[in-house]
Design brief:
single chain, about 525 residues, alpha+beta, Phenylalanyl-tRNA Synthetase, Chain B, domain 1, Phenylalanyl-tRNA Synthetase, Chain B, domain 3, 4 domains, 14 helices, elongated
Length: about 525
Amino acid sequence: MGRLSGAPKERLPEILVSLGIHVESETGSTLRLEYDPNRPDYSSDYGIARAIRGKLGIELGLPKHAMKPSGWTVTVDASVKRVRPFIVALLAKNIRLDDEDVRQLIGMQEDLHEGIGRRRKKLAIGLHDAGHLESAIRYTTVDSKFKFVPLGASKEMTVEEVIEKTEQGKKYGGLVSLSKRYPMLMDSRGTVLSMPPIINGSATAVTSSTKTLFVDITGHDLTATENALAIVSETLWDLGGSVQSVRISDGDKARITPDTRPKKCAISVHDVSTLLGVNLPVSKIKDSLLRTRFDAAVKGKKIIASIPRYRVDILHPVDVVEEVGYGFGYENLVPDTDFPYSKGRPSTESGLIDSMRRLVLGLGFQEVVTFTLKSVNTQYVNVGRSDADALKVESSKTKLYEYMRDLLVPGILEVLGNNVHEQYPQRLFEIGSCLRRDHNAETGVNEELKIGGAIAADVTPFSDMKSVVDAIIEKTCGFEATYTGASIPFLLDGRAASIYLQGKEIGYLGEVAPHVLNLFKIKMPVSVFEFSISKLF
């Protein structure tokens, strides 16, 4: 596994688990491992070996490398902008590869394609034997009649034939086939490196005889391509290569890749003790970070961590604290059982909700649970309400589930309309969350727990529904509700009222207007109620 001189082989399974790597099986001297996709630097044995050396204190802190310019350039043609706009690259000299190293590189390449690359949609990696290339590389596009010898083939094929006849073309051709131009990477002599993201050219195939490696990564996401290149770069250093930078000339802009500068992030002793539940001195926190291959410097009450560029999973100070845990060893954390014992019990709110639910069921209602997302017709149009302040899903896949509900009754009416063939009377209720826009709230949204109900029958007088609401509030809360006539768009005038509790409006009840029943295709008179449980609290 990479270079692990000095590591106790008999302890490897235990060490791997302490790094968050799952050991699936052990057969003789072979370990079968599964790593978290969040750690793409574990996509090769070399990345895992690098972490083990840090864990054991064999090598501490950031891997240190002196990277020189290679003198190689990649010129980006404007025609790629609409097809696959970004490219980064590096050159690795003095590579010594055996068959296992080649297998490791290809395995890492495919893992990165699947993970960061989202099956080559976001990025694709090309590995090339640079001994067959000129140092001036051009990233351009060609038409479907362009010919080259793809990897694994013995004769030239057109781009069209590559897409239609090769396994790789059938699998990945759809990523670029919508364009009439196809991305192509070639040197100044016309030698084809690859047709990204589909297949490499045969001329630059990597073998155990390869001494200089050219790596390109193309894609639609510049950050993702740079992240993947940083991982490949560190792996090639571990392979004993000398990684050199490449100049990317993109119109009037130029970039030097790979970018291996470490990121900085500050944490405090308080962060560590709060999140890990263990009080570590500053010196131990620093040592723990060094063991995860970070550098660390103490400035006052802060520890400034320098994060290696290949650790693309580190996004927040919490992630750095997690690394302190790995460096210290989660296996060294001792469970703390010194806490007061207490029995759990339902909260006042959940007790009230349960009592309310049992009472309504006892009154002969059947509970329904509907989706929080509704269509504009159900929630607004059919009940004559404006959607001006509605909470709408930005990119909904269907118009049936576009709007967050702010009332329960429209959803209950929809259920009644879908069950006109069932026996009457129908008595339904629902308890659920409703959301509405509230500019005074911290998040701009107010969430309320509500209860709503409906009775569909030959005769559903206002007085029957008022008796139901009185029973719910008096029996569960011990208070008496009061009512005031109200004008509600989907209820009959003179047959609708607002519900008040101790002077605060909490909901409404009334008989549904005939035109609304028609819109929901309900064939019976319906009375409804709805009030806020949250306001009762």
